[in-house]
Amino acid sequence: MSLIICIIVVLLFFLALLHLVTGISNDAVNFLNPAIGSRVSSRNVILAIAAAGLITGVFFSVDMMDLVRSDVVNPSGFKLREILILYIAVSLTNIIILDAFNTVGFPISTTITLVFSLIGGALAIIVANPADQSTVSHYSSYINTDRILVILAGILTSIFAAFILGAIAQFITRLIFTFKYQGRYRFLFAIAGALAVTSIMFLFLKQGIGEIFAPETFQSIQNHGSGTVLALVFVSSLFILWGTSHLFNIDIPKIFVLFGTFILALSFTTNNLVNFIGLPLSGIESINEFLRTPGASFYDFPLNFLNKEGIQSRSLDNSTYLILFFLAGLVMAITLFTSKKLHSVTEMEVYLGRQSPGEEHFKPTPLSKTLVRGFLKFYKKVQNAAPNRLRQFISSRFEYSQSESYKNDPDQIIHFDSVRASVNLVISSLFIVTATSLRFPLSTTFVVFMVAMGTSFADQAWGRDSAVYRVSGVLSILGGWFITAIAGFAGAFVFTLLISHGGIWAAVALFMATLFTLWRTTVYHRKKIAREKAVTQSDSIKKIESIEWLHETGREKVRKYLLEGSKIYFMIVDGLMKENSRQLKEAIDKADTLQKEIKVFKSDVFGTYGNLPEEAQDSGQYFVQILDYLYELANGVTAIGSPVYYHVENQHKGLTTAQQNDLTIILEEVTAFLNFLIHYEKEKRYESLKEMKNKQNAVMALLEDCRLTQIRRIRSGEGSTRVNVIYMDIMGETKNILIYSYNLFQSICDFYRKSPEKAIR
Question: pTM (2 decimals)?
Answer without folding.
Answer: 0.73
